[in-house]
Amino acid sequence: MSQCLDKAALDQWYALETENEIPFGTSVNRLLGTDLTVTRSNDGTLVVNAEGRAEPLPLIHRFGLVWTTLGTPAGGLFDLPEADEPDRRVVNCGTVAVRASGLRIVENFLDLAHFPFVHTDILGAEPHTEVAQYNVEIRRDVDEVWATNCQFFQPQAALSASEGIMTDYIYRVMTPFATLLYKTCPNAANRWDVICLFVQPLDPDRCRAHPVMFLIDDVSTTTELVHFQQLIFLQDRIILENQRPVLLPLEPRAEIPTRADATSIAYRRWLKEKGITYGTTMMAA
């Protein structure tokens, strides 16, 4: 695959690896069609180099991950105050490789309608298949996509849930390849659980997903929480790797949306406004 020429995609921060899983010595990685080498010295210092570049890449250490960029982002990472609340569990759920466009993965994350059919008896179940009307907006002050007032009945909304509940959701897309959701917390009525998905595009049609959760849960073990989240994501991967086209269509009427796809419609419009083409069918245009 050729290296990325999409400046809008280059000028973003990307999660590269869970920091405590990076081995000592030199390992290889990849981002936007560019091969990387990651060097961890004996004192833990990390240096990331990109093929064809003399200077190391800039790094940010946040959410238990190492982030880097091949371009010149306008600023640092997005704000996430919940990540700094002392009573929250920070659960890094590993890395999952997916043979699909990273943008397809973000869009799938935003889709309520697939819950009963892909995550049956966990995040949804028949006959509770209707997606109630919700609100979507592109928040110009922060340049993010938000979907609010989302509700869905879930047999097991979280690992700690003891019975089915009507779950409230808020979706937030911070960058083209980084998204999260706030959802009803079974253990604290006035707070939200936060589930993030940070996507690392290797090539237009291959990526790695880094799920991270910030939870109010003092009962479940870390292993149980990771297994629960990985189960959900691996169910999604089966669907994602069989979607056609593999790249995300941005052309009008390339795919026919329904009322439930309001977030997807806003997301695609936002990508087009930004000039994102990497991982989309517009690359060949």
UniProtKB/TrEMBL annotation:
Keywords: Oxidoreductase
InterPro entries, sorted: Cholesterol_7-desaturase (IPR050584), VanA_C_cat (IPR044043)
Record-annotated Vanillate O-demethylase oxygenase-like C-terminal catalytic domain positions: 99-273
UniProt keyword Cell wall biogenesis/degradation, yes or no: no
Protein name, as recorded: Vanillate O-demethylase oxygenase-like C-terminal catalytic domain-containing protein
Single GO MF descriptor: oxidoreductase activity
Organism lineage: Bacteria, Pseudomonadati, Pseudomonadota, Alphaproteobacteria, Hyphomicrobiales
